[in-house]
Amino acid sequence: MTHWKQRSTTNLDVVYFEYQTKAQIDSIDVIYVWDLDKTYLDTSIDSLSGLLSTVFEKAFAKKNVPGTPDIIRSLSRYRKKHFNEEFFPLFFVSASPPQMESKVYEKFGLDEIQPIGMFYKDNLRNLVPKKLLFLKKQIGYKVQSLLQLRTRLSKNVKMICFGDDSESDATIYNLFSDICARRHTETQLTNLLEDLGVSYSQIDEILRLQTLIPIQDPVEKIYINLATDTDPEYYLKYGRRTLPTYNSFQVALDLVQDQRLSLEELGFIAGGLIEKYKFTPEQLVSTFEELIRRRVLGLSSFEMIKNYFIEKGFISLSWMPKSEPLKEKSVDNGSVYELHGIFEPWIPRHIDYLKDYR
Fold first, then answer.
1. Is the dihedral of CA 299, 300, 303, 308 positive or negative?
2. Which of 36, 106, 158, 199 is in Cβ range 3.0-4.6 Å of 220 for a Cys bridge?
């Protein structure tokens, strides 16, 4: 196979591989952006040993975060059925090194998914004693990657973003949102990026890319996989747009609520978790109830999904959750933004990125 440098474009440490060259991404209304490690693949690259192990691991040996390929395939089928899309608008932004690209792409083939493109971090050059710290510094790299992607998308695109709690993904996606919406002055943004450990060259590139994109917030929803068991209440500092989830079934439930997945596809995802990963119907119902307790799912979605669970035999006709579901208050084009009651804002006016508390 051709060397990765001949199959990609590089800007600082951002390496981009394009797979679907015929996809007209500048006219797509919604795209899906996925992190790789601990969000799609159950891997670890935050240590030297973990990185080297991941680099040399065979494609067939790579393990998925349970249910993630099923979610992507379900989203793809749903959009093809309802929007007649030839290419599912999927992109990956990974902090993995580009030397892994051929094996990861082979893994995608085994999982029967076809991303349009993928970003990698040229990180093996940091495998020297004085630079090992940069293995864990992902904010500048990922924000730059997202901005490079944004320059190629339509003016009013919506981005559904997926990350985890191990690599500051909530900070990255929300900061990207702030940059697109111009919520900080140039001086404020520069100081913030410096405080977050972003290099001067990367700060300059981020500011340059900001001038190339419209003043519009494209981030529609952010899902954070709780891979390291962070308390979900911590993420309330980012607003209700950022949803921490314990498993992929909770992601699927919320996607059903926002009319991005059907009950039929929810059943496909549930079946995969039960058959491949030994989930029980009781566990799936428990995660459903946990989202009701956290006031994520509204009354209409609760009733629809409850009836589905009754039909599948997961629960009885008399079953009721311990917390009463609330009615939807703000719904736009099928997406639920607010339930009746007093809650944190959907997007806060200010997020304190530098303090590690709610």
1. negative
2. 158
Rounded Cα distance between 318 and 216, Å, is 46
Half-sphere exposure of 250 (CA within 13 A, CB side): 24
Token duo for residue 183: 């919520």
Rounded (10°) angle between helices 281-293 and 263-277: 130
What are the tens digits of pLDDT across the range 195-248? 999 999 999 999 999 999 999 999 999 999 999 889 999 999 999 999 999 999
Other CB atoms within 10 Å distance of the CB of residue 200: 11
The owner of tokens 């608008």 is 89
Distance (Å, rounded) from C-alpha 172 to C-alpha 175?
5
CATH architecture classification, 4-246 = 3-Layer(aba) Sandwich (3.40)
pLDDT of res. 2: 79
Of the candidates 142, 183, 175, 138, the one whose C-alpha atom is nearest the C-alpha of residue 33 is 142
Spatial separation of the C-alpha atoms in residues 194 and 355, rounded to whole Å: 15
Residue 49 has pLDDT above 60, yes or no: no
Bridge partners of 93, per DSSP, are: 119
Separation of alpha carbons 2 and 67, rounded Å: 32
Which tokens in the block code for residue 284? 């799936």
Strand partners, 332: 335
44-68 in b/e burial notation, b at 16+ Cβ within 10 A? Answer: ebeeeeebeebeebebeebebbbbb
Alpha-carbon 341 to chain mean position: 27
| Domain locations in the chain as residue ranges | 4-246, 255-343
- CA quadruple 10, 14, 20, 26: dihedral positive or negative? negative
Picking from 243, 244, 241, the residue whose alpha carbon sits closest to that of residue 229 is 244
pLDDT of residue 135: 61
- Residue 289 to residue 246: CA distance in whole angstroms: 12
Q: Count the neighbouring beta carbons within 10 Å of the beta carbon of residue 133.
A: 10
> Among 325, 328, 323, which Cα is nearest to 340's?
328
The confidence score (pLDDT) of residue 246 equals 97
Q: Tokens for 224, please give them.
A: 């954070």
Strand partners, 224: 163, 244
Tell me, rounded to whole angstroms, the distance of Cα 204 from its chain centroid: 26
Res 7: pLDDT: 93
